[in-house]
Structures are given as structure tokens and as C-alpha cells.
Write a structure and sequence with these properties.
2 copies of one chain form a homodimer. The first copy, chain A, has one domain: Phosphoribosylformylglycinamidine synthase subunit PurS (Mth169, Chain: A). Helices cover 34% and strands 41% of the residues of chain A. The first copy, chain A, has a 3-stranded antiparallel β-sheet with strand order 2-1-3. Chain A is α+β, with helices and mostly antiparallel strands and 83 residues long.
């Protein structure tokens, strides 16, 4: 079966996020001063063959740990859906 | 009320995604040849004050159109949750 893994990667809370700070500054300039915090990370989708959604989740987890996320500085969330 | 907007930004289908192609190549090298497609985009969270989730959604939409996404090359999805 074909599965889609949607992976959200964000800098961990408490760590500096200079990109987020820059975007927060921009929010005031485009008329959105109500925005009080911005964090910027990566969104990655993987299409894959797997026997079950558990197997797809395990593959996405391996991808995060070995390649996609820097586990010291970033956290990740994985969503799996059948295609 | 405080709301969190979670924004996923991806290159539009059919457009070149060189980062995605590079990551796809890496998938084979870390033992995940079952991954057949990768797309790489941005994940951005905004914390804001708003009177309703509709108002928060409208602010996030403005942020995407004016600052966060390149609408020629990227599409975006917004999720709003109350904090």
C-alpha cells in the first residue's frame, strides 16, 4: 500500500530561532502586531510503499533520526495517511 | 483568546523541488529505498491574540500571502487551534 508521511520539524522550545525572530519582526510591519511568537521549521512529505501504517511510521521515524532532523536542536511530529 | 496557527508551506506539484530530490537520494543511502517521492517545504507556527478562530485564520492567511509563502511557487495550509 502507498502511504504519505507528513513530517513537521521545529526548533526545540527555549532554543534560539533567529528565523522565527526575523519573521516576528516582519509581522508588525505587515500590520499583524497581534502575533506574539513565531517559530520556523521544516515541513517534509514522504511517499512510500509499506505493508501497514505502523511500518510507514517506523520508516518516517528512521528518516527523521538519520537524515531529516537535528535531534539536539529540533523536535519532530509524524502523521501517516493511506494514499 | 490565544490561538496557535500551524502553517505548512510546500512547493506546488509539478514544480522543481531540488531539496526534495536531494533528500530522496539520501533515503536510498540510509536504507529506505521504499520512499518514492520527497517534498521539502516550511513549517511555521504563529501565536496570536484573536477574538475567534476565524479571525486567527484570517490573520494567518494575510501572513502567508504577504510574507511567508511565494504564491507563484508554493501552496500553503493553515490549522488553527485555541491555546
Amino acid at each position: 500500500m502507498k502511504f504519505l508521511a507528513e513530517i513537521e520539524i521545529l526548533p526545540k522550545k527555549g532554543l534560539l530561532d533567529p528565523q522565527g525572530k526575523a519573521v516576528l519582526h516582519g509581522m508588525g510591519q505587515i500590520g499583524l502586531p497581534q502575533v506574539s511568537d513565531v517559530r520556523v521549521g521544516k515541513f517534509i512529505t514522504l511517499e512510500m510503499e509499506a505493508a501497514s501504517s505502523e511500518e510507514a511510521h517506523a520508516a518516517a521515524e528512521t528518516a527523521c533520526k538519520k537524515l531529516l532532523a537535528n535531534l539536539i536542536m529540533e523536535g519532530y511530529r509524524i502523521r501517516i495517511s493511506a494514499q
